[in-house]
Amino acid sequence: MKLHILVVLAVYVAAACAPEPEISSADVERILSVLSGDSMGGRDILTPGIAKAESFIQSEFADIGLETLEGLEGFAQTFPVHSLTAKSQKIELNGSVIPEDRVAAAVSQQSIRWMSPDDVNIVVVGSDDDLREQFFALRGRDGNTLVLVHDSHQQFFDGVRMFLSRPRYVLGLNGSNMVMVLTRQASIDSLSVELESELSTESLTNVVGVIPGRRSEEIVLFSAHHDHLGIGRPVDGDSIYNGANDDASGTTAVIALARYLEQSGKPERTLMFATFTAEESGGFGSQYLSQQLDPDQVVAMFNIEMIGKPGVENPDLVWITGFNETDFGEILQQGLATDTGYTFGPDPYPDQGLFYRSDNAVFARLGVPAHSISTTSMDSDEDYHRPSDEIETLHIEHMMRTIEAIALGAGPIISGRATPTRVDPENLN
Ligand SMILES: [Zn+2]
After folding, report:
1. Would you list the domain boundaries of the chain?
2. Tens of pLDDT along 233-252?
3. For residue 359, cis peptide bond before it (omega within 30 degrees of 0)
4. pLDDT at 139 over 90
5. Shortest CA distance to 279 belongs to which of 363, 201, 218, 344?
6. Buried (b) or exposed (e) across 387-412, using 16+ Cβ within 10 A?
7. CA–centroid distance, residue 70 to ligand 1 (Å)
8. Tens digit of pLDDT for each residue in 368-402?
9. Per-residue pLDDT averaged across 395-414, rounded?
10. Which of 71, 153, 301, 319 holds its CA 20 to 30 A away from the CA of 112?
11. Alpha-carbon distances, residue 396 vs 52, 182, 223, 258 (angstroms)
């Protein structure tokens, strides 16, 4: 009996002495400086630099003591991506051969063979139509589409053609195909369209770790993208696009949050920490993870992007894209203890469509209350997508406070006391 009391006492004393979990600015700086260092080479997909970043994140997750996603051996979630490069094309419309420089194609199959107008949806873009708008609307359209573009649009068409001549990455080889032809023809009686592409298959890697909660089927997802633009056009003699803010800062936040929440005791909901590959080149990492989960089980997604700098106009604002699509932002506002000095609010740049421009959009389209969280002034940031996006331009103390604010704001969702409303995909652009 006495021994029993002693044991209970010892447990109490140990609990009282255990350090309060905290976000440490030294840890934030350490992680950020590794991820944004020149040795990572700007973390472009399919380079040794991004592989180094992925190993580093995996070792952090292991050190924290996260568990792996069901079905995976480790924290790496590796998946194939296919690259297609145009090899040959033969196109005849109404019996006349179309020259190569009047064809632009976005295909997701190695061989295309259309022999009759019945094989395709034909869309005509006349001289008065807006080609730019049509191009973005048609690009993701299912099935086979042939677009007849009036030759008054030559200039924009040439830009599209250049853009589409680069290798094209696709997750699956059975998606949509779009062929655009610059022509005066607006009705087609006969056609033959044959395109061949060079196919190669590469692998990409997300890093995913889990803290299992009491409710295994309710997931709170914290994410960021660890890829960036790699090595490119030099600016002032620097050609490494370090992406310290975009998005080593978010990746650092995900790791710091994992450590903090692992130390905070068993959560009610299951917490998932994901750093995505290939955000900058098509969002393949988030697409792949979304296909491996049941989106209905994802209660909320905190996608953290560019929190390395305080906003110029309102330095204490942590803004949330798509604020009005769900009540996620209001829940965060309520969960935030006032002593951080930070507030959550709507994205100040609604015209930039940021809600649709990051990995959260993939999950939002599946109904998940999935939002990106940021602090950088997107209208005036001089380092965005430039080699000067380096750690020296970031504000470590601000990052630490922002991560703290996210942890506190997420409290009611993690504990199961609050559940954000879902996105209605029909309302999205
Ligand atoms: Zn980004």
Report:
1. 21-67+212-427, 83-200
2. 999 999 999 999 999 999 99
3. no
4. no
5. 363
6. bbbbbeebbbebbbbbbbbbbbbbbb
7. 27
8. 999 999 999 999 999 999 999 999 999 999 999 99
9. 96
10. 153
11. 23, 51, 19, 18
> How far, in Å, CA of 327 to CA of 421, rounded?
6
DSSP 330-357: HHHHHHS-GGG--EEEE-S-GGGTGGGS
Considering the chain, what is the average pLDDT of its residues?
93
For residue 111, the CA-to-ligand 1 centroid distance in Å is 33
Query: Given phi > 0 = left and psi -120 to 50 = alpha, else beta, which region is 41?
Result: left
Output the CA 305–ligand 1 centroid distance in Å: 6
**246 Cα: distance to centroid of ligand 1 (angstroms):** 5
Residues of the chain above pLDDT 70, percent: 95
383 Cα: distance to centroid of ligand 1 (angstroms): 12
Rounded to an integer, the average pLDDT of 126-130 is 94
DSSP conformation class of 99: P
- The CA distance from 60 to 27, in Å, is 11
Measure 226 CA to ligand 1 centroid, in angstroms. Answer: 9
- This prediction has a pTM of 0.86
* Residues in contact with 148: Cβ distance below 8 Å, sequence separation at least 6, in sequence order: 93, 122, 123, 124, 125, 181, 183, 185, 186, 188
In terms of Cα–Cα distance, which of 349, 279, 341 is closest to 316? 341
DSSP per position, 106-158: E-SSSEEEE-SGGGSEEEEE-TTS-HHHHHHHHHT-SSEEEEEE-GGGHHHHH
Is residue 17's pLDDT more than 90?
no
Helix (H, G, I), strand (E, B) or coil at 89: strand
DSSP 78: E
